[in-house]
Design goal:
5 helices; 3-stranded antiparallel sheet; 4-stranded mixed sheet
């Protein structure tokens, strides 16, 4: 519904990616923003579902190495998952902008962040401005979670 919606293409809008699908998705698309919406653990791992339906915990350094391989193309990664700040820190060594969550975040606040972020991107705002508007939208949903999203810039 944004003014500049025709400037964007939603590539491979997978509802569920298993670990074996991730590299294929990165290789087959030309995405500059990658959005992960899922679950994270207090130790900084992200949870993925395996082929047999069990949970696989993926450590920060593994995903950071994956994003390193695509760092020339990917400009922003959003980890819309609880406790994903450690993942964001690791990925920020290779990607210009990474959003993570510094604690648990409710589904409503996570969804609100996404809405605010993409409304701003669609209106022509840059990543930093979009992050702030996503954070505000999240705070409007849950004031207690206003400080949960964090934006990290590439660490040189």
């Amino acid at each position: 519904k944004s003014r500049q919606r025709d400037s964007f293409k939603l590539e491979l809008p997978e509802l569920s990616l298993r670990p074996r699908d991730i590299t294929r998705a990165f290789l087959e698309t030309n995405a500059s923003i990658i959005h992960f919406s899922g679950h994270g653990g207090a130790g900084g791992q992200l949870f993925f579902e395996t082929e047999d339906g069990s949970t696989l915990l993926v450590e920060p350094d593994i995903l950071a190495d994956l994003f390193k391989q695509f760092s020339k193309r990917i400009k922003c990664v959003i980890l819309n998952a609880c406790y994903s700040e450690k993942q964001a820190e690791a990925i920020s060594h290779y990607i210009d902008y990474v959003v993570g969550m510094n604690q648990a975040i409710s589904d409503n606040a996570a969804i609100a962040f996404s809405i605010g972020f993409y409304q701003a991107i669609g209106a022509g705002k840059n990543i930093e401005e979009a992050f702030e508007l996503g954070k505000i939208q999240s705070g409007l949903q849950s004031a207690l979670e206003y400080q949960t999203p964090v934006l990290l810039k590439r660490q040189q």
